[in-house]
Specification:
heterodimer, A: alpha/beta, 21-stranded mixed sheet, 25 strands, 32% helix, B: alpha+beta, 9 helices, 5 strands, disordered N terminus, disordered C terminus
Chain lengths: 572, 308
Amino acid sequence: MNYFPDEVLEHVFDFVTSHRDRNAVSLVCKLWYRVERFSRERVFIGNCYAISPERVIMRFPGLKSLTLKGKPHFADFNLVPHDWGAYVQPWIEAFAKSRIGLEELRLKRMLVSDESLELLSQSFVNFKSLVLVSCEGFTTDGLAAIAANCRFLRELDLQENEIDDLCGHWLSYFPESCTSLTSLNFACLKGEINLAALERLVARSPNLKSLKLNRAVPLEVLQKILMRAPQLVDLGTGSFVHEPDSETYNKLKATILNCKSIRNLSGFLEVAPRCLPSIYPICLNLTTLNLSYAAGIHGSDLVKLIRQCVKLQRLWILDCIGDKGLEVVASTCKELQELRVFPSDPFGVGHAAVTENGLVAISSGCPKLHSLLYFCQQMTNAALETVAKNCPNFIRFRLCILDPTKPDAITMQPLDEGFGAIVRSCKQLRRLSMAGLLTDQVFLYIGMYAEQLEMLSIAFAGDSDKGMLYVLNGCKKLRKLEIRDCPFGNAALLTDVGKYETMRSLWMSSCEVTLGGCKILAKKMARLNVEIINEHDQMDVGPEDGERVDKMYLYRTLVGRRKDAPEFVWTL
Amino acid sequence: MDGTLGLLGGGGGGGSSGASTNESTVSKVEVVEQDFVGMSSEASSYPAEAELELGLGLSLGGGGVKAKPCTWGERGRILTAKDFPSVVSHGSSVPSRFTDRATAASVGPVSGTKRAADSVSQEGGSPTGVSQVVGWPPIRAYRMNSLVNQAKSQRAEEDKSRDASKKKIYSKTDPAAKEKCHLGFVKVNMDGVPIGRKVDLNAHSCYETLAQMLEDMFFRSTTAVSSIGSSGEKEQSQKASGYKLLDGSSEFVLTYEDKEGDWMLVGDVPWGMFLTSVKRLRIMRTSEANGLGPRFQERNDRQRCKPI
């Protein structure tokens, strides 16, 4: 390969797109490292504190797309205080000062401010795509800045962010000259929208393929929008309520017949089930259906809808579908690859839920299933063993039993054998999240069989340090381990400290590790940041080494301790 | 793991279902118990432990074979030992490790946990169960909030008579107002200063304190990190030329945008009324505020907004 000029190498590398492959390419030799870094356009950073923006800029001067992830995953469940960190501001500042021609920014679990968005919008002439997932800290003013200043904006995708909706006219800030939009998702905004501005924006965006509306957009306006944008592929409705006899509704039915390209459907944040027949014509071609926010659709309406969706590959649903409804899914959706069943009433009485039977039905009807998130009332080993046999192709398997330490509902045994069957059978399993009564035994199985496992989430499981050690020793590809409320202590933590440098991060909360243990770890491993989150007023008292730590988050990093940690976060 | 031991002992040992235990389970229990014995000295140092016989919260039907009617009536109800028959039978001497983990938490976003000792002492000495556990079930906070809001609005709808001919722009004034009340933060921009700040209106009870705070914020240099924690906020050099924002004697005047989008002088209406209608604040140059009276029609920062 030394005989090829750099341009040829670069051309070959163009075909290498996944960041992992490109990382591997860059390790081959210095020449390849050099060619690769100058030609890399997309950079993925799984932990924003693992590296500094300056170093990223130095290494990849041709960078056009940056993906950043901030807070640890358990922040989703309020286990991490809001001001823990993960600010995007320093990144945007650094990039703005450099000559990087940023075109795309994708953020997950980061703190974003209006100032950051404003700076972003003003600093990169060719900025095209902003995707924010589970972020917070900004308002619709920041969106207005993006709309106003990014002349070539193609994509503004807001997924499940906490946005302070000032009910302003941010949509109106898209200039008349902006006709480049391909994707607009503001479903998570809670306030009013300037409907006329929205209609005009859609009308002048001929390339719009993906549009997800928020609750404030009524059915009449949806109809007008669909008239203007029959080319949509991806649609998220807002409010879907009207009288079925009305002229508006009839117009909608006719309009929808014209929308032959819709493949992904979501929304129904507010819905009158009588209006659902209007979408039956598009159900036939749907590959993705997300009804996880459509609490208004249940029972026979839901089943009727699902029966139309024979080509479905991805389904997100609420557990009010019930086991019977899942049987309908199993018999209808033979192409199903991903299923997520969310609880509709997480703290409620429990009648509107699914059990192991629904899952077994799915597994026998949908052999292509590879990704699962399943919140259920109960589970059994037998069911899991059946599922493992029916669906050996699982890549992601996340099971959550609402009562976290519930044993096998029939035998009252721990669910070790069931999950053991899953990891034994699903050799490509990369992500696993378990629930129910679990002992060290299940970790032994995971260590033995889950060779491709990259991410493991454990809660209320295990008996002793052995459990955690089985996993650390056995899972060679482990990258993220997150543990809460398990009896794993210093012995488990400190046995193989080198392991953590092969991983992105480790989270342990409400376990048995002590401050002393964490200090030892921090001392041994200079390239790890070991952070303790201490929210109690013990700063003046000063916890002793023998005390258990409430929350520990450690991650590998090339840039040492971070300088923006709040006072309740100690980096040891 | 104490808690698991308790449950394991309960579940494996028979619990309410009387399930038979096989050899391996029994031996496992024994092994674990030995481990437990070794830990007992550590365990006994925790306060209020003897009072507690705990399993883990959130049982939705108990561990028994028969489907128990769920005792989890409302969100946040304190579970008692009665809810965990299979646990409690063996639990009396088992200090469930969850006692220390138990937290009292509301459904909404909670950024802290409380030690069990705190929450338990509030319940009194009787063996009460654990309150809701933070972060369980593992549902993204955004989705959880959305569920809560949907449940509330469904209840509200059931109360109201449905008028389908009414245009159903789902005006989320209630949750939006709630959010505002909850946050209390409004943006403040000052003419000539590129970066705005945020103030918590709930922290003030009258115009004077608000004005004082804004004067401190914008007219005196500060080294304090802003409340939103962004490291990017910079202060302009302080302006010494007059800083009384409320009485019209300075170069600047304090204005606000109300719900209708109009810009008004701050101070004209009663404080309470101001709080409900203010959306954001602007420290405007007095020269630009000419004609700014109780109603200011000109939208000089909305030039891009096309009239409908």
